[in-house]
Amino acid sequence: MSSALDYHDKSTKLSPLVIKFQVSLDLDVPSTIPTSIPEPVQAFFVSVSSPAEILSSKLVSRVKGTDVIKGGYNFVHILNLDIGESHPFPFVLRFPIDPDSISRSQTCTAVGCMLYCQRHPDLNIPTPAIYAYSCTHGSEFIAMEYIDGDALSDVWLDIPEGEKEDIINQIAEVMRSMRTKTSFHTMGGISPDGSACPLVDGMDDRAGEVLVESFGLYNTGPYKSVREYLQAVLDRRYHYLDQMLHKGTLPAKCKEEMSKLFSHSTLEEVLERVKRLREKFKANPYDRKYPFVLRHGDLHGRNVLVSRSSPRRILGIIDWDFGGSHALPFADSGFELAYPDSDRDTNERIKQAEELQDSELLLDRVVGQPCSSDAKLKYWMTSTRSYVLDFEAAPVVLSTTDTQHGRYADARTRAISSPI
After folding, report:
1. Can you give 165-205 as a three-state secondary structure string?
2. How would you label 356-388 residue by residue, b for 16+ Cβ within 10 Å and e otherwise?
3. Which residues does residue 75 pair with via DSSP β-bridges, in sequence order?
4. Is the per-residue pLDDT at 405 higher than 60?
5. Over the stretch 141-171, which tens digit does the pLDDT of each residue have?
6. In the 8-state DSSP scheme, what is residue 261?
7. SS3 for 414?
8. Which helix (H) or strand (E) holds 229?
9. Can you list the domains of the chain with their CATH numbers?
10. The organism sits in which domain of life (predicted)?
């Protein structure tokens, strides 16, 4: 199947995968099941079409000692499939906590990015094999390979010092591979068949934004240029506020939650600032061109699985919901290894933070900067952030220890120094 998105070297060998269409799932989305798994397992996953159907099957049971994991967007179950052999077949089932609170392309992109990595083994980015999935809104799910490993965030502080640099280098190689070995024609998400789909973008002030996304009021991608993407960023915030304040299409809680983000402005004042920004951008000649490369979009220690024994090695990169093809300046750069444990005493938390900061600095040195600085791009990308929109009405902040950690001061400095 040809791809409008994939511009990868076509001489690359494809991994041994068999494409099967599941009538019970999306007809336009092929299911990819590795031929290496037992035929009864293949038959089971071909037959299922929803997470409820999987969980209610008499062949499925929870792996002993595991609980349901509730992440930021999804429930995750670690399950066994009894196929009548001496050992059950373990797998992971993931589905949205609330389908209406996530982008319509989130599951699609998560599956598509993992399959993309598997179809291009030269990238050397390990991802879980996909057994079954549905990208249909309201019944999304992914059934995938269970990787027997540790989340890097859980074990980082216990890894011997001599192995930490090696892990950092492995992560850096993944990031470098995404930047230098991939190239795409457009900026957007990746569907399971390799074609382009709407971009799943990280959203500031999330409540209700995914509802507006589904209204079709602005371009959700894929985008042909960075300028087209920046226009969509401004349009998204404008329509979100307009729908909230004037159209009455969003729940009242959205207005309440967003109002709390502004200390010095009303939502109507903020909307007027966004309107001015949109007009300012339309008159601006910004047209910088950048390569479009693969990005994970949520790359941190909780989404990196490593082997349980030494020497530690990366076994899988998971949770590609915000991945896809992005302009080079948006490539993964920083890497958060873990949050300091808030349950420990203050001295221990400070020690953790110092250790993690040292490792983040090492990672930056290994990977290097993605490209030269682009002040105009940075300006437009931050212009609709809540703390920036609020700064116009805020008093000048001279200290970086205020409640916003100096963000008003930073925003004011950026706006004044911006060449736009």
Report:
1. HHHHHHHHHHHHHHHHCCCECCEEEECCCCCEECCCCCCCC
2. beebeebbeeebeebeeebeebebbbbbbbbbb
3. 70, 95
4. no
5. 999 999 999 999 888 888 898 898 899 889 9
6. T
7. helix
8. helix 226-242
9. 17-147 (3.30.200.20), 387-420 (no CATH)
10. Eukaryota
